[in-house]
Write a structure and sequence with these properties.
Helix content: 25-40%
Number of domains: 1
CATH architecture: Alpha-Beta Complex
CATH superfamily: Nucleoside Triphosphate Pyrophosphohydrolase
Largest sheet: 4 strands, mixed
Number of strands: 7
Strand order of the largest sheet: 4-1-6-5
Shape: globular
Oligomer: single chain
CATH class: Alpha Beta
Order of helices and strands: HEEEEHEEEHHH
Structural class: alpha+beta
Number of helices: 5
């Protein structure tokens, strides 16, 4: 098994699962990464996630990371995946979503701040705040997938 750090260092293709979280009012969960993190410290991020382990699905990786970073257990649904070339190294990014009632207890070692933004507020934030390189593409593709739920279906079998 290869660690994500080694895959990034060597430029090897790997898999990452993220979850876009919404609340009952349709607002998006946005968080700012902790300053001590090695990748994108202090950047804002739309998806909560991390590398998928061997034999782990995108949904499992996203749900695990949601629990670790935000202290939340939630039903996570796979939406789509794409080859993400933004960031430190190319990787398959499996995007899931979940509806959350609240965030239980964020891990301050991972998450410095979080908040709920409406779609309009998130659009403004993406233009004005410093986000991770993949956040805009995740958001754009998520909106397309949400508008046409079958848009990602051809990729569903390619997990």
């Amino acid at each position: 098994m290869v660690s994500r750090r080694e895959a990034v260092r060597e430029g090897w293709l790997h898999r990452v699962g993220v979850v876009v979280c919404r609340d009952g009012q349709g607002r998006f969960l946005v968080h700012r990464r902790a300053e001590q993190l090695s990748r994108y410290p202090g950047h804002y991020e739309l998806g909560v996630g991390g590398a998928a382990g061997v034999g782990e699905s995108y949904e499992q990786a996203a749900a695990r990371e949601l629990g670790e970073e935000m202290g939340v257990r939630a039903s996570v649904s796979f939406r789509f995946r794409f080859l993400n070339r933004a960031g430190l190294s190319p990787h398959w990014l499996g995007v899931c979503d979940a509806v959350l009632e609240e965030v239980a207890a964020r891990d301050p070692g991972e998450v410095a701040w979080y908040g709920w933004l409406t779609e309009a507020e998130l659009l403004r934030a993406l233009r004005g705040w410093t986000f991770t390189p993949d956040s805009q593409e995740i958001f754009d593709r998520y909106l397309i997938c949400r508008a046409a739920p079958d848009a990602g279906s051809s990729e569903r079998g390619l997990r």
